[in-house]
Design brief:
The protein has about 190 residues and is mostly helical. It has a single domain, classed as Four Helix Bundle (Hemerythrin (Met), subunit A) (Up-down Bundle), CATH 1.20.120. Helices cover about 75% and strands about 0% of the residues. The longest helix is centred in the N-terminal third of the chain and has 63 residues, at about 1-65.
Length: about 190
């Protein structure tokens, strides 16, 4: 009987040590797995927020350069066009677009900010280059049409709507690519 009690005690001690060793190994592994999942989630949420920031920045630029707002509204109330404020707003909006794009490059996006940059650019890079190019062209034409800037002698300024439509088309292409990425990010969020 005494031998049997000692045997049960030994089995209990061995079982407890095995269980303790298993816990000592499993708990850090589970903790590390949870930490990796949370780190991935934070990274995906940050990328999602940065894609949204680019979307908002391009929308602000589009609204700012809308010819219906800039040219027709001016004609309706005959208010003077504030070219300095317009230039400042366009420069700030373009800078916000470029900054938002630059912030996304950490996630593997490759943006160029002009057509003359890298021809091996990604589709989103070419679309963004189109947005910024047509925005600059449209801003220059708006300044000429409002009388705030002189046209190049012998060159007829282009009508603003085709330029605006080109910019909007480039933005649509950019957002199509970005929305696909946003959907993939949304689907990739761990629960």
């Amino acid at each position: 009987m005494v031998d049997q009690a000692a045997l049960y005690g030994l089995m209990g001690a061995l079982g407890g040590s095995i269980f303790g060793a298993g816990a000592a190994i499993a708990v850090p592994m589970l903790t590390q797995r949870y930490a990796k999942r949370e780190k991935r989630r934070a990274r995906l949420e940050d990328e999602f927020a940065r894609v949204q920031k680019l979307r908002r920045a391009t929308r602000r630029l589009q609204v700012l350069l809308d010819p219906h707002i800039n040219l027709r509204a001016r004609g309706a109330d005959q208010s003077p066009f504030d070219d300095e404020a317009f230039r400042h707003e366009v420069d700030a909006a373009l800078e916000a677009v470029e900054d938002a794009a630059d912030e996304l490059e950490v996630y593997g996006y490759r943006f160029v900010h002009s057509f003359s940059s890298d021809r091996r650019s990604t589709p989103e890079g070419q679309a963004l280059a189109g947005v910024t190019h047509w925005a600059r062209e449209l801003a220059a034409v708006t300044l000429v049409l409002t009388g705030s800037a002189e046209a190049v002698p012998g060159v007829q300024p282009l009508p603003p709507m085709p330029l605006y439509n080109e910019m909007v088309d480039c933005r649509r292409r950019l957002l199509g690519i970005m929305f696909d990425r946003m959907d993939a990010l949304r689907d990739g969020f761990p629960d």
